[in-house]
């Protein structure tokens, strides 16, 4: 998107605001499917938690993607967006048997990641096909908070518990139709994926009625100019060869599954905010914006990097700024970042704001969550209205139980 497009959106819809470029989402989807074009059956299930707006889910559905969901609410959003139940996989963690049963009744593919629920569900519903999430005990990911496949992780059933799984399957007679893993996010090394994949292939040999093997996701995307990223093409070439060989050994053409979220939408997103104040201190120049970590928590939560450009002054000279928000705590997006000269009223654009930005936004400090816009076919489409004060109070109940206390005169 051009600076002029972003400025026009900020002027029309106000700030702060999220903007998503559909063209980039499409190109990322085509890049990933293209890397596995030599596999007969490939299925991408978009990770809804990355960005769950209905317009985005409809776009994914139009591309042929299914959905990877982690809550019954995400399942309902997918169905509301027109996605067929058979194209939705439910991969929760730590939810109740009741929630899993409710989702199962919707016709969605169930993915179970613990022995207790596996046995309970299999005993009550042996005819319902179930996928099993394996923990491969592989430490991977760009941050400890997003590494989910290691031995101390709460996710998945340990590979050392395969005998327990097989005992449950035999005792219940349940149908295991898929094997799944997810080791973490922001994984750069292709060999980490391939190593974990071998563990999954070895595990799959224990199950004779599989329809698919789901390799999760976690592909690293670039966050700055010259940044390194997962070599999707190399990974596609190497895993394709190994997967096709395994299918021949298994005696069946299985579906190769992935569940990308960040890879598809991160680079498509921009977060626009207006500069309220430029504040010079004895050591730092702060640019304070009309937002905070209530709208973009990733820098504070994951120490993540978001490129920041001054779209109001594309020809200015560069200076060093610390970009901070209006939350009354440490609320820093960037420290001593080289940015084109900023003046009060300028619009700053944060890059890589498509994944885990709006979806992790909150009403902290009783601030409104921003609007969302989809840039599609060179036109801005409002896909979520900005919240109002009524949204802050609509679920609160005003109770009249407090009597006025008379304070005696001193």
From TrEMBL:
InterPro entries: Ala_racemase/Decarboxylase_C, DAP_deCOOHase_LysA, De-COase2_C, De-COase2_N, De-COase2_pyr-phos_BS, Orn/DAP/Arg_de-COase, PLP-binding_barrel. Pathway: Amino-acid biosynthesis; L-lysine biosynthesis via DAP pathway; L-lysine from DL-2,6-diaminopimelate: step 1/1. The active site is at residue 328. One of its GO terms (biological process) is lysine biosynthetic process via diaminopimelate. The modification N6-(pyridoxal phosphate)lysine is found at residue 49. Its EC number is 4.1.1.20. Belongs to the Orn/Lys/Arg decarboxylase class-II family. LysA subfamily. This is Diaminopimelate decarboxylase. The lineage of its organism: Bacteria, Pseudomonadati, Bacteroidota, Flavobacteriia, Flavobacteriales. The gene is lysA.
